[in-house]
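Archive maintenance. Older records in this collection stored only the sequence; we are now back-filling the structure field for every entry so that each record is complete. The fields below show one back-filled record exactly as it appears after the update. Entries are processed alphabetically, and MFHA1 protein is next in the queue.

ARCHIVE ENTRY
Title: MFHA1 protein
Organism field: Chunga burmeisteri
Length field: 218
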Amino acid sequence: MRVPNSVVLPVGTHVDCCREEEVEEKRRDIMAKITTMLAERKSNLAHFINNLEGSEEPKFYVDQWERLKEMESCTLTILNLVAVNCTDHHDIKKLEATILEHVKNEELFPEVVRVLPPVYREVEAAIVDIAQSEEMADHGMMDLQYLLSKLSQREHLANLGREFLQDILRYLHRVGLVVWYEEIKQLESTVFLQPTFLITMFKLLVRYHLVQQLESIS
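Back-filled structure field:
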């Protein structure tokens, strides 16, 4: 809801736990609730904006007003919910095909046809090569400056600057090849070349009954 022109594909799992008629009933119920939620959000934002504009000293609330107006302008496209049985390989392939079909829709994603400079692909290929090399640790974490120095050792990337690399990393982060939390001060100089490591780590840390498990330790 805070990302401009975002597209959301709701996915319902555990279809195998429901009867066929239940699946369609739940699908309609979820989509109706999403529609209601978006309408309430739009109404609440308009209410907050009107309150600020009608205050006795509106100039004191300019920052808040601008943030609210920015959120109000964020369009949100909700696609039809896809129901899947995660234990069925056919359903997983169906979900994958649905995602690819939507991503290729130029009306939903106008930037899908954008042509990237060749250096983007060269850096992407080099990072994949570094990530798969024997010297790369399993966790795939690398200091941003060190990554720049490794890339600069390659003849066709010798003139790669830090700012340009950061632009490329933002793109690679968006497409999921790397993870770079530039907005978090403690992590802004760390690039995760193996995103799957983070998934494995989060699965260990964030789990059902985690609080109870921690409390049981003396």
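Update note: The domain at 118-201 is CATH 1.10.10.10 (Arc Repressor Mutant, subunit A). Helices lie at 20-53, 62-73, 89-103, 118-131, 144-152, 162-175, 195-205, 210-215.
Entry marked complete.
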